[in-house]
Automatic annotation (TrEMBL), chain A:
Name by which UniProt lists this protein: ABC transporter permease
Alphabetical keyword list: Cell membrane, Membrane, Transmembrane, Transmembrane helix, Transport
Subcellular location: Cell membrane
Domain of life according to the entry: Bacteria
Residue span, ABC transmembrane type-1 domain: 97-303
One Pfam family this sequence matches: BPD_transp_1
UniProtKB/TrEMBL annotation, chain B:
Keywords from the named record: Cell membrane, Membrane, Transmembrane, Transmembrane helix, Transport
Primary location recorded for the protein, binned into one broad class: membrane
PROSITE patterns: ABC_TM1
Domain called ABC transmembrane type-1: residue spans: 80-269
Family in the record: Belongs to the binding-protein-dependent transport system permease family.
Organism: Albidovulum sediminis
Protein name: ABC transporter permease
Membrane topology, as annotated: Multi-pass membrane protein
InterPro entries: BP-dependent_transpt_permease, MetI-like, MetI-like_sf
Transmembrane segments: 20-40, 82-107, 119-138, 144-162, 201-222, 242-263
Cell location: Cell membrane
Length: 317, 286
């Protein structure tokens, strides 16, 4: 037991280090941006006004001091205020984070439920060349279609022919539950398409890899039922690649939903970030990038811990 | 003929994996057509009013014409040239840097290794498009931003692959023997290590090119890639999506080209992995 705890503690500590590095990276990157707060807020303002703004945001202090101040504010949940609307960014996050998470959860469930069984089936049937070939072509094809191409195809089909789904408009669920479902299907389907390809391909490759192992041959030689072999050996041994795939996909969903949110006008984190960038609203960019990158670090940490829980051999070191 | 050995190797490659063999030929054709487009008997991509506006695809206008009457086929080929060239240049730079950094991490002692690994973890925590947005914010939209973004996105995986492969090779008997028999570090590196890590690296580079095309076109789709009048496949998709209900061919032309390019590159990567991995290749044959 203590080995597991030690393993988890190590992973958590390592993730914390990465988080600090990520926050420094973002801080430095934002400070390299051309044009300062004064230029955004008072492009042609008098010198005193620019001075006031610099004082207000603490821009005259040395960078390390600014960094520590920013980090300690972030730690207490204060993500700063928007330069343009002057609203606290944390308040905007309260409405935007749930939207992105809702899409991510829907897309993950859909693509795992469709992709894993298909991958498993085509992997188990890989000696029948027809099934195997089709699965390989289909999986790699879906994986190669960029999300904005899928989105464009959906936009074309669903705005050309009225098929009952809302296109390019987001309806919050508390306003109209059915309207919400109609508006959520297309973005979620676009995100799932990528995931289905990913899950088919990785599951299939993992299954084929496991099937070539000696313990499968041994199990067959012992006369175990194919069903038991799949349950006892194949499924257990493909769980690690599946965890990897899941973590890659979740990271894509949280950061990569930027484009899908942009195309479908979904008021989530990605759209918030793009708008912040276009308006040069740097506090928004800083906060959004920080939250997304932290989420990715935490996802990777969870995956690392999961590897150790699934496979005791990986707990060492 | 110079091509003889190339064809010979391609035959082996094609035999190991027909899909990847076909993909490699397709990719070759795409690259040649995109590079040689200025020599083909086509309208110049920026010639306005060469055709009626928004004409549907037909026999002499395969991809139709856009809202300014430009020939879409010429524009798609020009866009493909930008997309393919940008990601190829970026991935070339990333692989040279990645091999160097990965080898340094593998052989230079614990402290530097830890720093390099930590740093690639940090960079890897930014999803591709997010990294692209951050870079464009700093250096401004354009080709340079796209190249920087692709390098930063593809570098960490290359470093990891090189580092892991180099460490594995170092533990093998043939390296120990070469070292014992007095080979210099340079010889060890060039003769024993580099050739033996080339397989995973080449495979990773192939995947990186497809990621590069994806990142480049995603940035251009958001309007942050090469600026007009230059247009990559992503910018063409962006322009076309305005007219999606009236002139879907403006989207489908560049989309088809982009998807085929990315798909072929992915299949080539997969094919290379199978081709160079004899154990795996054998179990697939059985």
């Amino acid at each position: 037991m203590s080995q597991i705890l030690k393993f988890i503690a190590f992973r958590v500590g390592s993730a914390l280090l990465t988080l600090i590095g990520v926050s420094m990276f973002i801080f430095v990157a934002i400070h390299m941006l051309p044009g300062s707060f004064e230029d955004v807020l008072a492009p042609r303002g008098p010198e005193e006004l620019r001075q006031q703004i610099a004082d207000k945001f603490g821009l005259n202090q040395p960078l390390p001091v600014q960094y520590v101040k920013w980090l300690s504010a972030v730690a207490t949940g204060d993500l700063g205020i928007s330069l343009i609307t002057q609203d606290p960014i944390a308040d905007s996050f309260a409405t935007r984070v749930p939207v992105t998470i809702e899409l991510a959860v829907l897309a993950t469930i859909t693509s795992a439920l469709i992709g894993i069984p298909l991958g498993l089936w085509s992997g188990l049937a890989h000696r029948r060349t027809a099934v195997s070939g089709i699965a390989r072509v289909a999986g790699s094809f879906i994986m190669s279609v960029p999300d904005f191409v899928i989105a464009s195809v959906f936009l074309y089909v669903f705005s050309r022919y009225s098929l009952g789904l809302t296109v390019g408009q987001w309806v919050p669920w508390h306003e109209d539950a059915i309207g919400h479902i109609k508006s959520v299907i297309l973005p979620a389907a676009t995100l799932s398409a990528v995931g289905i390809g990913l899950f088919i391909t990785t599951t299939r490759n993992a299954v084929i890899g496991v099937l070539s192992k000696d313990y499968i041959m041994a199990a067959q030689a012992r006369g175990e039922e194919p069903r038991d072999i799949v349950r006892g050996h194949v499924l257990r041994n493909i769980s690690n690649p599946l965890v990897t795939t899941l973590s890659i996909y979740l990271a894509y969903l949280i950061g990569g939903a930027i484009i899908v949110e942009y195309v479908y006008s979904v008021p989530g984190m990605g759209r918030f970030l793009v708008q912040g960038l276009l308006n040069r609203d740097y506090p928004i960019v800083q906060a959004t990038v920080l939250v997304i990158a932290c989420a990715v670090v935490l996802i990777n940490m969870a995956a690392d811990v999961a590897y150790g829980l699934i496979d005791p051999r990986l707990r060492k070191g | 003929m110079i091509l003889q050995p190339v064809i010979h190797h391609w035959r082996d490659f094609n035999r190991a994996d027909r899909l990847a063999g076909t993909a490699s030929v397709t990719m070759m054709v795409l690259i040649l057509v995109a590079l040689l487009a200025p020599l083909l008997p086509l309208d110049p991509p920026d010639q306005v009013a060469a055709h009626p506006r928004l004409s549907e695809p037909s026999a002499d206008l395969v991809f139709g014409s856009d809202n300014l009457g430009r020939n879409m086929l010429s524009r798609v080929l020009q866009g493909a040239r930008i997309t393919i060239l940008l990601s190829a240049i970026a991935v070339l730079l990333a692989s040279v840097a990645g091999v160097a950094i990965g080898l340094i991490a593998a052989y230079s002692g614990k402290a530097l290794d830890e720093i390099i690994s930590r740093f690639s973890d940090i960079v890897f925590s930014f999803p591709a498009v997010l990294m692209g947005l951050l870079i464009t914010a700093i250096v401004g939209p354009g080709e340079f931003a796209a190249i920087c973004a692709i390098i930063l996105v593809t570098l960490p995986p290359i470093v990891r692959v090189v580092r892991a492969a180099a460490m594995e090779v170092t533990g093998t008997d043939y390296v120990t023997i070469a070292w014992l028999s007095g080979a210099s570090p340079a010889r060890l590196l060039l003769v024993n290590v580099l050739p033996n890590i080339s397989v995973p690296v080449v495979t990773q580079v192939a995947y990186s090119i497809s990621i590069g095309m994806l990142v480049e076109s995603a940035l251009s789709f958001l309007g942050l890639g090469p600026q007009p009048p230059a247009a990559s496949l992503g910018s063409l998709l962006r322009e076309g999506s305005v007219y999606i209900t009236v002139a879907p061919w403006l989207v489908f032309g560049p989309a088809i080209f982009l998807v085929i390019a990315i798909w072929s590159t992915n299949l080539i990567g997969e094919g290379l992995r199978v081709f160079f991995d004899p154990v795996r290749a054998r179990c697939l044959e059985e």
